[in-house]
Amino acid sequence: MKEHVYLYDSVDKELVAILRADARASISTLAKRLHVSRGTVQNRLDRLVNSGAILGFTIRAHDELETDVVKAVMMIEVIGKSTAEVIHKLRGIPQLEKLHTTNGAWDLVADIKASNLLEFDRVLREVRAIDGVLNSETSILLSSV
Fold first, then answer.
1. Claim to verify: residue 82 and residue 46 sit in the same structural domain
2. pLDDT exceeds 80 at position 35
3. With contact defined as beta carbons under 8 Å apart, do 127 and 121 qualify?
């Protein structure tokens, strides 16, 4: 069975951009901003969610509300051709908010958000124990400037 690949157009991209700024925008508001019908917006949203393009709807809290959270960036070096397997295992760690491939000395960069230092320490140990992870370097983010 051949998997269908959905090609995203400018309306899809604009819809995602609007939702990034306001994930609570109503279907009516989205339709007005995109100059399309409410049905079109609903169909597009359904397709974006079902295709995995939209993973969920969330809020962005001001940094002042998250003073007890430990945020960090972890650079990860992977052994040989095990990157896909390592990524699959890393995606199972909920504290890794985002995962990026990169060029240069490090193969992957992970954005970490942990509720406290104990959880942060556990996440570091969990990542380093994954088969295929050769080396890592982590920097705690102290403040945003």
1. no
2. yes
3. no
106 in the same domain as 84: yes
85-125 confidence digits (pLDDT tens): 999 999 989 899 899 999 989 999 999 999 899 999 999 99
How many structural domains is the chain composed of?
2
Q: What is the pLDDT of residue 100?
A: 96
Confidence class of residue 2 from pLDDT cuts 50, 70 and 90?
very low
Q: Do 67 and 132 share a domain, yes or no?
A: yes
Task: Give dist(CA 114, CA 103) in Å, integer.
Answer: 26
| Cα–Cα distance measured from residue 128 to residue 142, given in angstroms and rounded to the nearest whole number | 22
Tally Cβ neighbours within 10 Å of residue 3: 4
Residues 107 and 72 in one domain: yes
Please, are residues 92 and 137 in contact by the beta-carbon 8 Å criterion? no
Contact 47, 15 (CB under 8 A): no
DSSP 9: -
Going by their DSSP bridges, the two strands 70-78 and 133-140 should be labelled as antiparallel
pLDDT at position 8 = 80
Regarding whether 108 and 74 lie in a shared domain, the answer is yes
